[in-house]
């Protein structure tokens, strides 16, 4: 986010207002669900010139419409209204990474100690290393070495912060199974650490591993969940059933209640958890800084999870439906890659839309039932797919014709289903931008230093924007962040931080 000559708050307010106006213009498309493609005649709701152009566009040309590279060769003659829609959507969305980067799958991080890679998928390795380094910079800028990882899951980030970076870490997790797994992984790492002394094993050939030795201090694990009403130091509730001793787990020595300053983070903190973290930071002086990565926007309460800021709350039409918030969780870059390569996975949405038609024909009152993911649906014929999906909603496949002419006619329209879903994906980054911009404005309105940073590679980590906020300037935290990995191409370029408004 670049600074505005008229002041950052006004610039961000204008961007939020522009997004709301654009979303309001395309509200039917924003709230449409692709599985209703046939049952609600979604294709016919598009402007006729759009239907003509999109109906003849091959998948690689749709990928270009979503911001992908030019596939070459003749393409459709896009209507100006469609080009304007796509251009406005891209212009108002936050930048999510470097355009034109060569695609590559996630791989094990050479910069992460081998013991910290155990039980961790390459995608998560990428995330914890990048976020961990950002948190290390925050620690250095604030002089605060105590970290609270809320929604810590199996403790992968907490483990890297504690063992890998030497920070004092409290890991908070409300799911007892995940917390138990985290403690087990800690014990495994400590056993190996005692055997090896912490130094990374060296290769027999090639350069030494570019990772530092580990420290023998692990994170402290606390069972609990965030209560957005309580003040810091009393903000944790025990998981069910309640235990009186867990009411204030950070209140003892070294916790927040004794006046110590802490940094708070949440990596893909689900739904209302991310807004709750920001609220605690805003009203708790003992929280020096926060780094929040949101996800599962459809689980947000509306309100209080959205909107947070006074500005967005006052904008007419700012409301976001469940479907709109769900769309913000889609992986645009991944789908664009499927379009560019003509992936057979593209047929999945058409299969589900046809299945929805069959479900409503057999049971009209059943709308959009949860059909669990059918593994490798793209490799199946539609009858095979339907025989697996229909029993999951209580219907007998033997009683429903799966190879009728009507089913065949719908399956022949797969290209239209793909084109329609591609249009909805153009709006998805806008919705995420509005939600995150609302959070940033909430902090700006209270005078904090904050920025949104595209920290992860969006090609395999779609929720890649990190909201960083602190009570001190963030210049040293953000400066050179893109260069910290040297030749490693995972680094992203951070935006410039804007100063908070005058109080």
Structure description:
The protein has helices at 8-25, 27-31, 48-55, 59-65, 80-92, 114-117, 122-142, 156-164, 176-196, 273-283, 310-313, 322-327, 332-341, 348-362, 382-389, 405-411, 414-444, 475-478; strands at residues 146-150, 168-173, 220-223, 225-226, 236-237, 262-270, 287-295, 449-454, 465-470. The chain has 503 residues and is an alpha/beta fold. The strands form 2 sheets. The chain has a 7-stranded mixed beta sheet with strand order 3-2-1-6-7-9-8, sandwiched between helices. It has a two-stranded antiparallel ribbon with strand order 4-5. Strand 2 (168-173), helix 9 (176-196) and strand 3 (220-223) form a beta-alpha-beta unit. The longest helix is centred in the last third of the chain and has 31 residues, at 414-444. The radius of gyration is 24 Å and the shape is globular. The chain starts with 7 loop residues before the first helix and ends in a 25-residue tail after the last helix.
């Amino acid at each position: 986010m670049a600074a505005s000559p008229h002041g950052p708050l006004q610039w961000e307010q204008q961007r939020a207002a522009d997004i709301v106006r654009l979303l309001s213009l395309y509200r039917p498309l924003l709230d449409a669900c692709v599985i209703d493609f046939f049952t609600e005649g979604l294709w016919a709701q598009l402007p006729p010139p759009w239907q003509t152009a999109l109906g003849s566009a091959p998948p690689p040309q749709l990928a270009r419409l979503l911001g992908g590279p030019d596939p070459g060769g003749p393409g459709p003659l896009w209507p100006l209204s469609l080009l304007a829609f796509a251009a406005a959507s891209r212009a108002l969305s936050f930048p999510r990474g470097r355009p034109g980067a060569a695609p590559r799958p996630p791989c094990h991080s050479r910069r992460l100690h081998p013991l910290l890679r155990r039980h961790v998928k390459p995608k998560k390795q990428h995330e914890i290393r990048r976020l961990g380094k950002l948190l290390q910079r925050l620690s250095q800028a604030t002089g605060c070495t105590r970290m609270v990882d809320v929604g810590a899951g199996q403790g992968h980030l907490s483990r890297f912060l504690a063992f890998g970076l030497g920070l004092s870490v409290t890991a908070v997790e409300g799911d007892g199974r995940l917390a138990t797994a985290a403690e087990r992984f800690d014990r495994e790492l400590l056993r190996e650490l005692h055997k090896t002394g912490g130094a990374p094993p060296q290769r027999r050939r090639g350069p030494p591993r570019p990772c530092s030795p580990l420290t023998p201090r692990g994170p402290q694990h606390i069972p609990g969940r965030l209560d957005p009403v309580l003040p810091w130091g009393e903000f944790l509730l025990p998981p069910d059933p309640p235990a009186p001793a867990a009411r204030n787990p950070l209140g003892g020595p070294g916790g927040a209640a004794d006046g110590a300053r802490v940094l708070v983070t949440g990596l893909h903190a689900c739904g209302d958890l991310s807004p709750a973290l920001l609220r605690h930071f805003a009203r708790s002086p003992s929280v020096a800084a926060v780094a929040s990565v949101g996800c599962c926007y459809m689980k947000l309460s509306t309100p209080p999870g959205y909107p947070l800021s006074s500005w967005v709350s006052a904008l007419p039409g700012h409301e976001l439906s469940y479907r709109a918030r769900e769309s913000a969780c889609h992986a645009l870059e991944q789908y664009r890659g499927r379009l560019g390569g003509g992936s057979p996975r593209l047929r999945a949405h058409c299969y589900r839309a046809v299945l929805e038609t069959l479900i409503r024909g057999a049971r009209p009152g059943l709308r959009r039932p949860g059909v669990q993911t059918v593994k490798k649906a793209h490799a199946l014929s539609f009858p095979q797919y339907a025989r697996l999906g229909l029993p999951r909603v209580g219907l007998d496949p033997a009683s429903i014709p799966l190879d009728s002419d009507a089913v065949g006619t719908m399956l022949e329209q797969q290209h239209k289903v793909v084109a329609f879903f591609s249009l909805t994906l153009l709006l998805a980054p806008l919705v995420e931008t509005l939600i995150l911009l609302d959070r940033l404005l909430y902090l700006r309105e209270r005078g904090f230093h904050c920025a949104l940073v595209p920290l992860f590679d969006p090609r395999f980590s779609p929720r890649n924007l990190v909201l960083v906020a602190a009570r001190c300037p963030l210049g040293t935290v953000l400066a050179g962040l893109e260069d910290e990995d040297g030749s490693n191409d995972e680094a992203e370029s951070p935006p410039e931080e804007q100063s908070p408004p005058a109080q």
